[in-house]
Amino acid sequence: MDLFEYQGKQYFARYDIPVSPGGMARTIDEAVAAADAAGYPVVVKAQVQVGGRGKAGGIKLAADAGEARRHAEAILGMDIKGHVVKIVWIEHASDIAKEYYASFTLDRSVKKHLAMVSAKGGVDIESVADEDPDAIAKAHIDPLVGLDEATARQLVDAAGLDVEAHDGAVDVLMKLWRCYDEGDADLVEINPLILTPDGKVHALDAKVTLDDNAAFRHPEWDEFRGVAQLDPRDALAKEKGLQYIGLDGEVGIIANGAGLAMSTLDVVNQVGGKPANFLDIGGGANAEVMAGALEVINTDEKVKAIFINIFGGITKGEEVAKGIVEAFRRVDLKAPIVIRLDGTNAEEGRAILKEHESERLVSKPTMVEAAKAAVALANGVQP
Amino acid sequence: MSIFVDEKTKVVVQGITGSQGRFYALRNQAYGTQVVGGTNPKKAGTDVDGIPVFATVAEARSETGANATMILVPAAGAPAAVMEAAEAGIELIVCLTEGIPAHDEARFYNALKRDFPSTRLIGPNCPGLITPGKCNIGFTPGDDALGGGPVGIVSRSGTLTYQALGELGGKGIGVSTCVGIGGDPVPGTSFIDCLAAFEADAETKAVMMIGEIGGSAEEEAAEFIRAEMSKPVVAYVAGVTAPPGKKMGHAGAIVSGSKGTAQAKMDALEAAGVKVGRNPTEAGDLMAGVVARL
């Protein structure tokens, strides 16, 4: 789960990481009230999960209530790269002497955590990594040991942070580590981490990705949910517990297993079609799950044909086939279906499908043949 | 020959009294796997269709001589289950449980490396492994697997593992061992571990590798193949056209550099001399060509 900046700052605050005083707002009046509470001057910041919001005019400085009102009015409802701004975060504007960078994430190739600190913050850190890799100090953190203060101090020193920032930065790093480790984050990133003219170090931005697998031990995450803006197809899929990602093509895809679903997209593309979505129904493919998946696909107006690709490992072929037939009966589908069924008891499953075969329900023995048939149907040609 | 499991492997099922644990314990046993026991501290002394249930893995091991476990307990209890198996002296731990927090995985991975370096962990969140005709631990539909070699399979994806077995079986090509290493952030056994084991296995003459987008495991495997492997490798990487997965923010992008896309992975593998199919069927055809020339 990716948090918005204001949620990330709320999460940081739980671990005593210093952030600017501020508040979130969904309306112009709420924004002015939050600005009054934070104390002028304030910064009005669009809350969207996409980079480049500053350049798009989504971050503005306001000296007084009138200006805060005008900026909130302009930013709320603004479209930033396809993301409509529904929430703004308003915080007291900080005086900035220096901008740094700090983060923790998992280094999958080393299988340890990776701390990164740089004196070159406030800019795109990926370009720093490309142009001046030595400007980023890195250290691997053993998950069994954790971050100790000596390592934090070495990092801050190696990154070349200003001497007056050292103690403050070490303190933030130790707290940020706790937020990452105890807070079960996949990523915590502060960019910029600032030094103020009076020598204080604090987080001006917050990027936090939480590990959904750890939600069972974090009831406090509940408040972060339900805020993200989903495509209506995504929202329906989520409600039904399906792994769905909407795309722009005309061939609807249903497969079991993420790898097979990805592979199905590849094959549809290779035979000249365009997938409308990625949809993984997981291991079991019973009638309930299949009907739910077909309902989600059915809401997509662009879909001209549906390709169901099932390799039965956990579920037996005849159960999958019965599920498809039952779902086909329950959902009033706008597009025809092509099915490829393989794996455990595939023969029995195909025999059941055969009885129900029609122009609207086609069965093919292999993935490539089925993809070709689905693409033909999407183009209005009966295979 | 085979890698990691054979007819002598004796398996204890941690979580045997759960519905999944019971189902796969019996299914693997019916396949011919020596499923010698299960564990559940509250149901010790009972049995699951004749398979004895013990309180602990240590007890199960001393009573049955088990050398492997299959873990099918819920995610919250899985880290403790992995460590219990290692402490009991189990050599091979196959953790099928999905949904384990990444920080937990990093902790038990490093704890095994430090304290139990000779214990092998496969998974978590993997379909298991099969040496056809001898031992099947996990979800793999054994009927799709043709045994006897000459091909070893290693895969990051569940259903694509079965697809690969199906592609080869359909052509009459046998498999020595097929290992599903799982797609979680910290897999206990990597592509490289399996490639090295297949390189050393006399029965395996060629290797099929199934990768997918994300991370840099395929690129690291490519480097290993280039430097260390004499046996031919055929690969398929899923996700050429897939939408970018979960974004790990800028820090994640730095860790993996420009790597991570299917195209980058395929390029790296081809540069290492691997034959790369654009889909599982094409990879199967390429492997048939390799096997014909062995």
The structure class of chain B reads alpha/beta
Helix-strand string of chain A: HEHEEHEEEEEHEHHEEEHEEHEHEHEHEH
CATH architecture of the largest domain in chain B: 3-Layer(aba) Sandwich
- Gyration radius of chain B (Cα, Å) is 19 Å
Largest sheet of chain A: 6 strands, antiparallel
Termini gap of chain A = 42 Å
Helix-residue proportion of chain B: 25-40%
User: What is the strand content of chain A?
Assistant: 15-25%
Please name the fourth-level CATH homologous superfamily of the largest domain in chain B: Succinyl-CoA synthetase domains
* Shape field of chain A: elongated
| CATH level-1 class of the largest domain in chain B | Alpha Beta
> Mind describing the biggest β-sheet of chain B?
7 strands, mixed
Describe what this molecule looks like in 3D.
The complex is a heterodimer of chains A (383) and B (294). Chain A has 383 residues and is of the alpha+beta class. Chain A has helices at 5-14, 28-38, 65-75, 125-131, 149-158, 166-181, 232-239, 258-270, 287-298, 317-330, 346-355, 367-378, and strands spanning 22-25, 42-46, 59-62, 79-80, 83-84, 88-92, 98-107, 112-118, 136-141, 185-195, 201-203, 207-210, 243-246, 251-255, 277-280, 305-312, 337-343, 361-364. Chain A folds into three domains: 21-92, 2-Layer Sandwich (Dna Ligase, domain 1); 98-223, D-amino Acid Aminotransferase, Chain A, domain 1 (2-Layer Sandwich), CATH 3.30.470.20; 232-378, Rossmann fold. In chain A, 35% of the residues lie in helices and 25% in strands. In chain A, α10 (317-330) runs parallel beside α11. Chain B has 294 residues and is of the alpha/beta class. Chain B is built from ten helices and 14 strands. Chain B has helices at residues 19-31, 57-64, 78-87, 102-115, 158-170, 191-200, 217-228, 249-256, 262-271, 280-292, and strands spanning 10-14, 34-39, 47-48, 51-54, 68-71, 92-95, 120-122, 128-131, 135-138, 150-155, 174-180, 206-212, 233-238, 275-277. In chain B, α7 (217-228) links the parallel β12 and β13 (233-238). In chain B, α7 packs parallel to α9 (262-271). Chain B is globular.
